[in-house]
């Protein structure tokens, strides 16, 4: 393993942390409808739990309504029950073979809770990035111990990894600030 390998590995893992943060933030409800909030809902399909997106077509009807079109008509009641029983607080209604899921407007108190949730997700992402930095620095120390690199090279590489960490922490802060603005917009 070389310094370049350590840096590349750290950068790849930090990128994955940012992607995970974005995916987690996409699930946070903002008062506007988006299909991502139904992604984690599981539906009983022929005796086995299946992701909603695999048994129905999920689309946006308008800014506050999600449309769920089951691939099989007999699945409509099961899908409706799964959405109602989820922890999202949504109340779907059937209209023929289409299920409409209106997203209620968020109260000010609920918006503040969502902002706290976003900040918690951001803190988790920062912890993950710092853990990656720690792992990379340990790898560099191991390279010094194995006499593969000098202490000066290790110090320079550690500084570069710190700069990389700082860059990703700033990215996390920007991402969360955007989401907070989106959540607090009425």
TrEMBL record:
GO CC terms, sorted: cytosol
Main localisation: cytoplasm
Cellular localization per UniProt: Cytoplasm
Protein name, as recorded: Ribosome-recycling factor
Domain Ribosome recycling factor, first and last residues per copy: 22-184
Family the UniProt entry places it in: Belongs to the RRF family.
One Pfam family hit: RRF
Keyword Cytoplasm set for record: yes
Organism (species): Massilia polaris
Gene Ontology terms, MF aspect: ribosomal large subunit binding
Coiled coil residues, start to end: 133-167
Role description: Responsible for the release of ribosomes from messenger RNA at the termination of protein biosynthesis. May increase the efficiency of translation by recycling ribosomes from one round of translation to another.
Recorded name of the encoding gene: frr
GO biological process: cytoplasmic translational termination
Keywords of this entry: Coiled coil, Cytoplasm, Protein biosynthesis
HAMAP family: RRF
Domain of life: Bacteria
């Amino acid at each position: 393993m070389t310094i370049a390998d350590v840096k590349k590995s750290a950068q790849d893992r930090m990128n994955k942390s940012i992607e995970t943060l974005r995916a987690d933030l996409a699930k946070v409800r903002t008062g506007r409808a988006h299909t991502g909030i139904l992604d984690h809902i599981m539906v009983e399909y022929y005796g086995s739990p299946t992701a909603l997106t695999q048994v129905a077509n999920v689309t946006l009807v308008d800014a506050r309504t999600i449309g769920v079109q089951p691939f099989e008509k007999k699945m409509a009641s099961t899908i409706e029950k799964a959405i109602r029983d989820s922890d999202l607080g949504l109340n779907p209604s059937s209209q023929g073979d289409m299920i409409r899921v209106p997203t209620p407007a968020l109260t000010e108190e609920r918006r503040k809770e969502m902002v706290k949730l976003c900040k918690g997700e951001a803190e988790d992402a920062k912890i993950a990035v710092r853990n990656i930095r720690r792992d990379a620095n340990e790898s560099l120390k191991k390279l010094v111990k194995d006499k593969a690199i000098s202490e000066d090279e290790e110090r320079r590489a550690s500084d570069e990894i710190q700069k990389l960490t700082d860059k990703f922490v700033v990215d996390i802060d920007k991402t969360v600030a955007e989401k907070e603005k989106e959540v607090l917009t009425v």
